Amino acid sequence: MHPGAPSPASSCRCKIVGCRVRRDPPNSTERYTRWINQLTPEQLLTQVFTANGPTVIMPTWFCSRAWFSHVGPFDEGGQGVPEDLLFFYEHLRKGGGVIRVDQSLLLYRYHPRAATHSVLESTIWAHRVRFLEEQALPRWAAFTIWNAGKQGRRLYRSLTAASQRKVVAFCDVDENKIRKGFYCHEDSQERPKPQIPILHFRAARPPFVICVKLDLTGGAFEDNLRSLHLQEGRDFLHFS
């Protein structure tokens, strides 16, 4: 070890450490299981805004007692509180890191009546939008929302007025949406009402907040994104 370098133990003191998992039954939540097992070390920090939640799952978490006390206890608000997501976000706010051991050390059972299903999607959405606006959007003077459909428009409407003013365009591959030319935010109090251009993704400029779900298009979306030769975290972030 290089003189003066932190020891492995000390370098983990401010980190959550998790691992890969095996799902039971094996074919339950296949897309989610691929996601949590295949994220790169960099993506453990860049894909923290997605609907999938923490980038290492809570049943696998280890951290030091001192760090747990520093971040704060889990929110014990009861059913309907995403306590793992709230703790994970507070961990990141305080500068914590994330490590995944690339071995399957947990058999992760799926049950349709598990407590996690009691958390409303709208509750998780609100926390994700807040965290995006707090941690990512201040770095960008302007950005494009990738998806002119329902999810992209919902994100736009969920943003604060200040963040909405940073949205310079929507982009998509759907020619019908692109031909429409713009999205008009009818609920805006501004006059005239904002009209946000809708562009083909190749005509749009990064950075992008991407509201397209991964692993659902047979690789077509992922191929389009790779063709732009962008850097995740700097030029785009995944939100869906």
Task: Provide a descriptive summary of the structure in words.
A 6-stranded mixed β-sheet has the order 5-6-4-3-7-8. Strands 1-2 form a two-stranded parallel ribbon. It has helices at residues 8-11, 30-38, 43-46, 65-71, 83-93, 121-135, 150-158, 161-164, 175-180, 220-226, and strands spanning 15-24, 97-109, 143-146, 167-172, 182-184, 195-200, 208-210, 236-238. 22% of the residues are buried. By secondary structure, it is of the alpha/beta class. InterPro entries: Nucleotide-diphossugar_trans. It comes from Piliocolobus tephrosceles.
Helix percent reads 25-40%
* End-to-end gap: 40 Å
Estimate the global geometry from the Cα principal axes: globular
Low-confidence segments:
1-10
- Order of H and E elements: HEHHHHEHEHHEHEEEHE
- Major beta sheet summary: 6 strands, mixed
Number of helices: 10
Please state the average pLDDT score. 92
Strand content: 15-25%
Number of strands: 8
Q: Which strands sit side by side, in order, in the main sheet?
A: 5-6-4-3-7-8
Radius of gyration: 19 Å
Structural class determined from secondary elements: alpha/beta
Protein name: UDP-GlcNAc:betaGal beta-1,3-N-acetylglucosaminyltransferase like 1
GO molecular function, one term: glycosyltransferase activity
InterPro entries: Nucleotide-diphossugar_trans
